[in-house]
Every structure is written in structure tokens, then in C-alpha cells.
Protein: NAD-dependent epimerase/dehydratase family protein
Organism: Nisaea acidiphila
Amino acid sequence: MKHYLITGGCGFIGGHLAHELSAAGHRVTVLDDFSSGREDNAPPEARIVRGCVTDGALLSELAGTCDGIVHLAAIASVEAAADDPERAVAVNVGGTRNALAAARSGNIPLVYASSAAVYGDAGARRVRESDRCAPISDYGAQKLECERELRGIGPLATIVRPFNVYGPRQHPASPYSGVIARFIALCRTGEPLRINGDGSQSRDFVYIADIVRLLTAALKREAGEPLTVNGCTGQTVTVLELAGAIAAACGTEPDIRHGPARAGDILHSCGDPDLAAASLGFKARTPLDAGLRETVAWQRGTDQ
């Protein structure tokens, strides 16, 4: 049995990871400031500490008894980072530096959740980890800056770049929720699905259970050179196709309304999964239609 620290462990991804590690018999400590996380996302047996990753002393104290850190805490969206840039830099950059310092001090592995936003708008091709990064948002630039600093700590750092993660416990009302959670909620209440532009923009949607498997594999990998991998499926769906698939999963007909395209939006985003497969044995298992059914079932269950 090992003891792991998850920053942001009461968030969407962090809560699922905490459940997985706890179910495997490990001790889990969660650090979360509850700016967006929910206590019921974490397993009841986890130790939950209310605090922020900007508190370096607290983070180091918690990490001192741990065998590894998964650093998920962030102002985790392009829009939120733009709305409060000073806070975003403090949390996204300063908090990551604190996590790095804690890992160095304890000589323990650190898994960092970066973002596909580091690639910017790379076109319709699959992007590889070795491709040039050209973020077009402050959020993406902050994530890329942290990646560069983390690579300097040697064999203990693993960087995961998740693409568009979805699944149960992604609350549609949260400012951090993605398009899938919101579209499901709208379909279920008979409201129209509003799409910016013609809906031809495409994304690589990866199910939460798959991302948790990747993070777990990264946490347990043997020491070696710093590693950066995509968290993706290697397959895309357009937003218009997604709307139809969600309506089908909800048993409704889609009511789609088109609005103007948003300036600065990334048109296409697709990751290359080969390096994660070769280095960590990871391959996404969940087809989009199956993941949508699970997510719809969860949202329906919250009505009870």
C-alpha cells in the first residue's frame, strides 16, 4: 500500500482518481480549496485537507508522508484563466512550482496534468508530443511554462496532456464543465443546443475512466527520463456530430441553433496516442457512444 497526494482531488478528474487509488488499497490525501471541487467527489476514506496549492508550506507538509503527487489543481479553463489572470498565474504557475518543490524535497514522483491547450490550433492532424507547441491562450501558455520547469527535475516527472475529458460527475452547471455535460443537460430539458459557427470544429473526447487509467500508469512508472504523453483517443468528432450523438443517447431529437463563430476558438484538436501506448501501455478503451450512455445515466440519476 502506498500513500498518494492529489491536488484538486475533489474536482472532476481528481475525484475519480482518488476513488481508483483508494479502491486499489492505497491511502489518499486530497488538497482542494473547493473553488470548484465538491467534497462528495472524493471517496469517504480519503483524508481531505482544505487549502490551496499556493500555500507551499502546506503542500510540502502533506507531501512529506507521501509516495507520489498527482498535481491536478488549476484554474482549469481558458475562460476562467482570462477572467482573473493574476489568480490564474498564482495557481497555475505558482501552485505548480510549489508541487515541484514538494516532490523534489521528498524525492517522490510527480504527475502533472497539463493540457492539450499547449498545442494551440494545430489543424486537423494528430499532434504528437514532439510537435511544436504554440498556445493561443494564457491558460495554454501557463501550462506550457510549467511543463518546461517540470522537465528540469529529472526522472521523477511525468506530464500528461489531457484532451477533452468527459464522463459521470462532470456537473453541467460548473464553469469548468465541457460541452458534453452541458449538451446532455440541455437535451434532457428540451432546450436547444447552441453551436458557435457551423459545427465543423472537431475535438478528441476521452472518457474519464480512461484518463484515470493513464494517470495511474504515469504515477506507477519506473524512474527514467522525464516523460510527456497525450491523454487522448486519436479520434475526433465534430461538434455537430456530437450534438446528434448526445440527442440519440438521451432519446430525443436534437434542436440545434447556430450562432456566430467565436474569434480565437481552436477549430480542430486531435492527439496522437502512440507514445502513451509505447511508454505506459495505455490505450483508450471507451467508445464515445458508450461513454455518452454512462454520462447520460449519471445525469439522470442525479434527479432522484
User: Anything to note?
Assistant: The mean pLDDT is 95. The longest helix spans residues 85-106. Residues 51 and 58 are 8 Å apart (CA to CA). The chain has ten helices and 13 strands.
